[in-house]
Amino acid sequence: MVERDDKGRVKAGSKLNQRHSKEKFIAIFEELAQKCINGEYLSIQECQMHSGIARRTFYEYADKYPELEDLKLQMNDAIIANTNRNALTGKYNPASAIWRMKMLGERDRQELDVQVKEQPLFDLGKIRTNKGK
Question: What's the whole-model pTM score?
Fold first, then answer.
């Protein structure tokens, strides 16, 4: 992990720009996902800040490798679950927690697209002729 000063800036001599193998990235993302599950991080940005990986590299590798994208989604899901749990237990303000979950992609309703066929349900011509009889 990267070392930061008391203001959150990267300390001189950190290894923020070092190169990693795919296996090293997977190990870092797995560790971050576990920390999200444990409730240590409340955003993907916070995960990236503490990962020791440059911001651009973090997101590029997550897009490049499906394993990393899956772990990033797992981080996001864990953050949503923790936010929801803390709102329900009263640790977080429910209104701000709901807003935060929506910003993270949680949906509160489902919308369906329905296609209607152009075929009538019954023949109006037969109904009119039957009335006349």
Answer: 0.61
